Please model this.
Amino acid sequence: MPIRPPQPKGCGFIRADANVAKATLRPLSKGQLGGQSCVNSALPPKVKTMSFRAELTHEIAILGCGGTIVSKIEYKTGAVFPAIDPEEIKTAFPKIETLAKITTKQIFSLLSEDMNSSHWSIAGKAVMDKIREGVEGVVLMHGTDTMHYSSAAMSFMIQNLPIPVIFVGSQRSSDRPSSDNETNLLNAVYAAKQNFAEVAICMHANTNDDYCNLIRGVNARKLHTSKRDAFKSVNSPPLAKVNYISNTFESLTDMKKREKRTPKTDFKFNDNVAMIYVHPNIQPKFISKLSSFDGIVLMGTGLGHVPTNPFGDRNASPVIKEVKELINSDIPVVMTPQTIFGRVNMNVYTAGRLLKEAGVIGDGCDWTPETAFVKLSWILGHTKKIAKVKEEMLTNMIGEISERSIVVD
Amino acid sequence: MVKIGIEIHQRIDTNKLFCNCSSTISDSAIPNSIISRKLHPVLSELGEFDKAALAEYQKNRIYEYQLFDKNTCLVETDEEPPHSMNSDALMIALQISMHLNCKLVDEVHIMRKMVIDGSNTSGFQRTSVIAMGGYIETSKGKVSITQIAIEEESSGIVENKESKVIYRLDRLGIPLIEITTDPDIKDAQHLVEVAEKIGLLLRATGKVARGLGTIRQDVNISTEDGARVEIKGAQDLKLLPTLMETEVKRQKELIKISGELKTKFNGKITIQRIFVNITNVFVNTQAPMVKNGIANGEVVYGLRLQHLKGILGRELQPNKRYGTELSDYAKTAGVKGIIHSDETLEKYGFAEQETSSLRKTLNIGDNDAFVLVIAKEDVAKRALENVAKRCEMDFVPEETRKANPDGTTNYMRPLAGKARMYPETDVPPIAIDAKLLKEVKENKSESLDEKKEKLAKILNKEMAESMLRSKNLQLFEKLLSLDVDPVLIANTLENTVVSLRREGIVISDLEMVMIDLFTNYKKGLFVKAAIIEILKHVSKGMPVGEAVEKNNLGKLSGAELQKIAQENNFDIAKIMQKYRLRIEPSDVAKLKKN
Model:
């Protein structure tokens, strides 16, 4: 039994120069911030002039996908519903046009808990249209509940991005003067003009209306029901700190830079994948019933476990046999950590070794359950060959699996 | 004729209205943490911004909020939706509404009232009308209660700077009951009576908070030919008649002044907006205020007020002149105050030549007045514009004014129209159905009259009246359950404790000490006369039992008492002379009888 964890192959992102200054800045042209002082404008800009059309037009496309950031009060029911014409965004946030030339388009209008992989595909195609049109960056206004699923989906659908694609939402509804929507949206638009080219989420970094964190789309997780800083970067530092008011874009890690590239696209998903939370009393019969799915993501306990009862306790009820049966019938089973933070390791305990022996995919991976789920759905959208699925799952495509477990607080 | 109405805000003694934080104000001036926020105007359902909100937004202000772990949570910081309305607070408010003979609403709708000064983290205050159409009986007939609302208290302001306002969040969300009367109040004495009666009625429920700042009265006054003015923040009832009389006089004087001015201006008062930068006049000034201002990059601006000589010095309230009104209007633009020609300019340290030079520059004629401000240029201009606008008002403006402790008032802001309200979508309406109504009625505390009657049965008239108004009423009622003579309890609370306090002896936890005291008294540990001595020791932090034992204050009984009685031939007077603190005379009398 090999004990060495698999080496994730081929990183999709370019390593930045070791000696690149921490802050990568592109000062705004004079007067763009209506008299706001540019705190860091003394630092040299890091962006070279590019033959990129969007670079010259400063056009940022905002795509409306619904969610609280654009919600209004529904007076009939008294609840909020997502329906502001994205065009109204310019009226609602007058400062936005001091940042960029804005074009808007409504793709759909629903709360993100209602979204599924068909919406991901529509959004992916819409983003691709905008890339073809040559915009400088794309901002998607999106509900926050499943934003990290959508951002992961976008990351896999469109790889080799030439420009930034940024998801933004708000945790506190837009009908309140204290909503985080303005800070988040303006920072997202500002970030969309910077020199990087990845899918990211831009939301409050903390409770203050100060700066936002830019989090790589495959590393983000919503970790609070209501707070402004609900989104955290899991197992990796955020990409950057963004503050349009002080005109700062401070990169915190290596990022793929802007460049003229032809994106690789695949908008297909398999919607028949299940994600299962492993828990005490999980029933063997429940696991066997999963055979109608095309793929299973397990959110295992601890380092990535299910009950296996290696010591033959008489009250225990293992499910390892049922997991094995699923794999034997060519259903890929992927292990993820229900602890959210940390890396799956199937070598430390017998349970892990048994799962690994059974063919469970994921040893050594520090992906979030949601990202692994989206990735499996996406891979099963173009292949069902188990060997191919396994190979692609373990390939680090876009930063969803990190090579080093960095000490981050 | 003067019309008077009153609005009373009283804190309810429960946890906060939309979360479970304690409604106490932290003793500490040092917060556990600080957060900073901004507010931005939101489009109304008509797709428009509120003008006032937009103006506030353009100031680019930062609101800093101080957090206190024990009484702030994610709800106060607007990081979590409000919880359901505190049912205890609602119940109390509904009961008070019934005591005030109001008709309860069928459904309580929680509304958001736009607040744009940052005093609420969310940008709005939650308020709900719970009852309408009530009345109270007074010596001058019925006074109608327009409506009763339950709402959340705003944050306490700590510091107000031009770019940043600091608030503390411990106060935010404390439940308030807001009682509004019709303008049925007849005169100043009647105003006090109404305020007092409602206050008494609130306190008699035993369910409202007590202490500084827990009740606030806003008075609405309108005079014939004058205007409606709301005076906010009167904490002391005794101040109300002065406030009222001062306001009536102020309005009368203002009417007189505007009459005179209209004559001088031939009908319409117009102030020419010639704002002149006269900083040059003061290049070598020794006037400290001007000198410091200029050193800080500020400029001096002047405005000529034609025909206004003598008017600015006219007294409207004790020590407050027409110039004070202009100054208050100027202050809203951000200046610290104004300097005007009806003041003695020497007090500012102006040199004679400076005064004559500025009069010349501003082209001041014999009948003209002038106003100076020292500030940044844009602020100075805005301030003078406000002054000009105020002078042109040939009527008494409708205003919200702030009550001062001396009974005068200062201008705060124009009287607010109907504030923009919209539904609080995070909390569904609460139906007041038969079940809830039954609960309200069953748990309703005694009415003021019932309480009066009850006290009259156990105390003499004077003491009953004083107990009804006492802040110790609830404690008194609690102590009654110890089955001790009510007169002794009332006396101890209202006389003994008070006289000790006058001597500088303060009992810190009154409730605990009184329960300890009367429990031991009931057990026969000491005699009535020893109470004052015991309390003196207890005030130093000693339990009652220990204070009695260590200081030989125990009640004498049995063989000991018998011995003393016999030795003194059962002469009560003689015995008491010696053993006043340890022997109950009735005990000796009993022995004597046997």
Remarks:
- The first helix of chain B runs from residue 51 to 57.
